[in-house]
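Subject: sequence -> structure tokens, single chain

Hey, anyone have a minute? Need the predicted structure for the following. Not urgent.
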Amino acid sequence: MNWMRKHTAIVIWVIVAAFGVGVVWWSVGAYIGGQSGPAQNASQAPSPSQAIALVTKGGTPLSYNYWIMPTDFNNYMQNVNSNYQNTYGQNPDPLFVEPQLELNSINTLVNQQVINYFAKNDNITVSKTDVDSQINSIVNQYKSNPQTLNYINQQYGSLQNFENFIRPQVEESLISQRVMSLVVNVTQSDVQSYYQTNKATIENTYNQAKIAHISLSSQATADKVFNLIKSGKLSFSQAAKDYSLDTTTSATGGEIGWLTMQQLGSNLGNQIFSATPGSIIGPIQTSYSWEIINVEAKKLYDNFDTVVQATSVYNTLVNDVQQQKFTQWLNNYKKQNDFSYQLEGQVLPYFKEFYSIPSTDTTKLDQFIQNMKSYIYPSGQATVNTSVDPRLLALFEMALESYKANLNKQYSAILSYHANAGSFPATYIGVPVNTLQQKLTEVQNALNSATGTNFTKFFNEQTNLQTAINFNKAFETLKAQGYTTDAQINAQYDKYNTLISQINDEMKQVLTAIYQLVPYSTVAVSKLYSLDPSNQQVALSYFQDQYNLLKPIISNPQTYQTYASQVNSMLSYVFSGLQSLSYTGQSTSIKQGALVTLISMAQDMNSPKEELTYLKQLKAVNPNYQGIDQVIAQVQTAITASSTTTSATSTFSSSSSSTPTATPAIPTNQASQFKP
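Reply:
Had a minute. Here:
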């Protein structure tokens, strides 16, 4: 259940937050995660080449005190990468994602330095007493946890060293708060205006319902359980214990607690928030189950007075407004004083230029692509220059994707015209769109109560009308653009296809080069697989990457049981892809790699019979695979030993597998390049 996963998942950190109330560019967590580099000797001014970025005013770099140096940048990025890992369950892709995170981080660090500049010029300072108080507050939080305290002592030598380490950042944080208090004033009227503007989002975020649920696999079972509850033959709590698939809540009568509309999702949320507290609703179909819900209570913030009365919500909105106003002030201050920054290095400046191009400016984007081609295809060569930094190859591919997206928008009317032409009765051509829309509404209303042949008739008519509407809208747009004949439109359609084909070829070339240079780039593998699924080596890497994402879930029985309904379709997709490669692989290494991964999946799922099947296939592919006979014998012994226990249906096939039995991990040293 996706909505349940939202509820039970760890709170997601913001990857790179805009500077705002109580938000500073540093995070203590970043420093606990690793040591800082050596401090810069104050008597020795660094050279620009040693910096990550130089903060400028009027085009002239400020003094080195305002530069972004590697130590601060690396510590900040360590925290960003950690937050990304917490959010997505994997490290950021080093080519396609990490440079963007780095650029966003530099922007945040530059903003902090601009604030420091303002504070210095306005003589805004903080006392040692204030800094000491804040440090004590931070340190006391960590001292209360012996494990954290021990880690700090290991990393920094002592608690005192840690305090000395964070002192400059704490002082900077307090100065930033002073600046904020000086330049931003938030009134209740400001908060009320913000509430009215963002009412739907605020309600979606803060409205809560206290619920219990029973999760069921089919409508028939759900109807049966619902009727037992409504008739009084079974209490809701007991029904949850007896029938619910959600074993994490069934023991407590299905109790979940307070959830927001955002956590529930619109389908389930709308029905829950429309229900009267104390009522039991359902069965409700979700993407993963049929739900019976006990709506126990609600907290609604559907008017500003209720927000004011809820202190925590009101204070959060005050902070939101303060952050918004402070961001506006900072942007204006930077613009008025011509603050910017110069990036050092050979890669990030290109990313900065790319992200500064408006998404709709096809001309600038095309120029950017042409400029990059001089590096990607030197001297007009037809092959990609693999000596170029792979991050620039990734950027070039992203630029091509953006250009392709712009072409799709530019040619959208032509594409719609071509896709819908000839797919509906000719009598609808030229009929006003509003007339067709009115007729479509009538047909849809009739469809709701139609049965048998009438249902088929109205369904087909609905399809014809929608197709005709799409065609006529496109035709009207094209007429307004000056197209008068099918020949003109078809000529443009052919031009579009030629351009897209060229872009796809270039993207495929660049992604192939990236894959050869950095085969562990999961984004490159995924993109290349979508363009060229026939490349079996890429396909193997792609399915192994997908398996690695699933592994933390499927290797833990309790976690898998909780999320089985969410991951089973992807698991089947990965399994089918690997199984296909195990049979059709164009080389022994492809077949072997697919089978090794399938064996790992079977081990993770505690499916010894499937494991044995793939072990035998692996032996047939490579009879000399190290230790294969020994492992086959061990798995056969394990299956025999557990043959008297209860069998369970396999995840991978209709065959049964015995109760989970530990089996030795198959050695993979001969195929380590394929090991997930």
